[in-house]
Design a protein that fits this description.
By secondary structure, this protein is α/β, with parallel strands linked by helices. The protein has one domain (25-234): 3-Layer(aba) Sandwich (Rossmann fold). The protein is built from seven helices and seven strands; from the N terminus they run H-H-E-H-E-E-H-E-H-H-E-H-E-E. The protein has helices at 7-19, 26-36, 54-61, 103-108, 131-150, 163-170, 192-201, and strands at residues 44-48, 71-76, 91-95, 116-121, 178-189, 205-211, 222-230. Strands 3-2-1-4-5-7-6 form a seven-stranded mixed beta sheet, with helices on both faces. Strand 1 (44-48), helix 3 (54-61) and strand 2 form a beta-alpha-beta unit. The protein starts with 6 loop residues before the first helix and ends in a 6-residue tail after the last strand. The model is unreliable at 1-6 and 153-173 (pLDDT under 50).
């Protein structure tokens, strides 16, 4: 974890070390949480693309005392150890490919198999440096997070090559894993297509908004789509 990218980056990098966060990205969720309060005490939280674990730490901190309950499940294609600082027994991780993970399997991992009250997607493609390609991959990951949240009631984003994969992943359930009234947070790389993801999400939630956190590196095109209050009619 380097501290490059100018003075701002160095500040957040040093703060992360000082406070025991495994990455400076913790402060992105800290700011979003302060402004929008997506995670409430005793929430059940799904963290997609959870490596290296900084968002697991922030999510757990916002669950309240251990006796209140709550749960955080982190999923990443890499194996991620639960950070020992700021996390407790309510935090678990599994290694899986979110693009092919069946919805019914994801729901079975939630408390009482009733889904999650918050879904966080900090998934990001391996950046190639080709702006249009990176933006398209980011949209694919972000749309997948939305489809997992809302289920078959939502439009499915597919590439021609991925028809079979998406069908297999989407056919096992008519409902997503986000509970009614729940919140969804999606990281995207800013582009015209990322704005379209916002338009797709808008009718399903009480409120949608965009935020570029202060801890984002100046050179980054990252932006977060914040979707609050999943509406009942969004599910079949």
């Amino acid at each position: 974890m380097g501290g490059g990218g100018g003075g701002t980056a160095d500040f957040f990098y040093k703060e992360a070390q000082r406070l025991g966060y495994v990455a400076r990205s913790a402060f992105k969720l800290v700011q979003i949480q302060k402004q929008h309060k997506l995670i409430k005490p005793a929430s059940s939280v799904l963290d997609l693309g959870c490596a290296p674990g900084a968002w697991l730490q922030v999510a757990c901190q916002n669950l309240g005392p251990l006796r209140n309950g709550g749960f955080v499940l982190g999923i990443d294609i890499k194996k991620v150890k639960v950070p020992p600082i700021h996390c407790d027994s309510r935090v678990q991780t599994i290694s899986a490919d979110v693009m092919t993970l069946p919805i019914h399997q994801l729901r079975s991992l939630s408390p009482k198999q009733k889904g999650f009250s918050v879904i966080l997607s900090d998934m990001c493609p391996s950046v190639s440096g080709i702006t249009t390609k990176d933006a398209a991959l980011s949209v694919e990951l972000g749309t997948r997070a939305f489809n997992l949240a809302v289920g078959r009631a939502s439009p499915v984003y597919v590439d021609d090559d991925d028809d079979n994969r998406e069908e297999q992943a989407g056919n096992d359930s008519s409902n997503g894993v986000l509970q009614i009234g729940g919140n969804l947070l999606i990281k995207l790389l800013e582009s015209e297509d990322s704005r379209e993801v916002g338009q797709i999400c808008k009718p399903f939630f009480t409120k949608t908004s965009w935020l570029r956190p202060k801890a984002t590196r100046p050179s980054s095109r990252e932006i977060y789509l914040i979707c609050q209050g999943l509406k009942p009619h969004a599910k079949i």
